[in-house]
Amino acid sequence: MTLEVRGLTIDIGDRRVVDGVSFDVPDGARVGLIGESGSGKSLTALAVLGLLPDGALASGSIRWDGRELIGLPDRELARLRGDDIGIVFQEPRTALNPIRTVGRQISESIRIHQDVSKRDAAARAVAEAARVALPDPERIVSRYPHQLSGGQRQRVAIAMALACRPKLLIADEPTTALDVTIQSEILDLLLSLVEDDGMSLVFITHDLAVLSQIATHGIVLEDGRVVEDAPVSQLLTKPRSPVTQGLLRDATATLWRPGGQP
């Protein structure tokens, strides 16, 4: 299945925050949306799922497997979320319900989209917790989000997003709030799960170093517009736009070095 975005614009009041964005995510592709804060990358991704904030108006075209999503009724969009398209947000502390166990939250995401019993969904929750490498999954599913570390909460969020085996995963800066070691573990986990399931991936980040670890193609945004659209290898070695050149300077100052040098 292919995601096709054509001429996407998003207006909030009298301000245009996304202006004519176009890109494709072919079946099985790993595409990154990268840019500084306020560039429009997260809003672009939220528009795909019909999750724009109140007052935001999207126009243009977003097609999933040939089906137009802009203007689709909320009930039909809800069927796509989690079933066809999963999403992992930046901060799991706010994405997870603090008064429900993580196992219940994983099992609920399954029961919403699949006709399974509570018992079977609970068993699936344990299996999904194990799949994302949570320690002692039988025990951890009985815990609440505040009882887990940041990295563990993000693994729960990933388990929820992937429990129904969506065809496309949108990951909205899922490692930004984590330290470098945990960040690397989450990136490795996401990459392995995407490859194992044959999913497509839209990965949102402001960090070219992070993008280089998980995506093969990058869409660079500035002020709601696409300023560069190229393979990640080209963004790393021959960036054309000043925005990408600035992102590369930031990357080489932190996690990534040309030629893999520390």
Question: What would you say this structure looks like, in words?
Answer:
The protein is an alpha/beta fold. The chain folds into two domains: 1-35 and 54-84 and 167-262, Rossmann fold; 98-165, no CATH class. It contains eleven helices and ten strands. It has helices at residues 41-48, 74-80, 92-95, 102-113, 118-131, 137-140, 150-162, 180-197, 208-214, 232-237, 242-252, and strands at residues 3-12, 15-25, 30-34, 56-64, 67-68, 85-88, 168-172, 200-205, 217-222, 225-231. The protein has a six-stranded mixed β-sheet, sandwiched between helices. A hairpin with a 2-residue loop joins strand 9 and strand 10 (225-231). Helix 4 (102-113) crosses helix 5 and helix 5 (118-131) crosses helix 7 (150-162). The protein starts with a strand and ends in a 10-residue tail after the last helix. Residues 256-262 have low confidence and may be disordered.
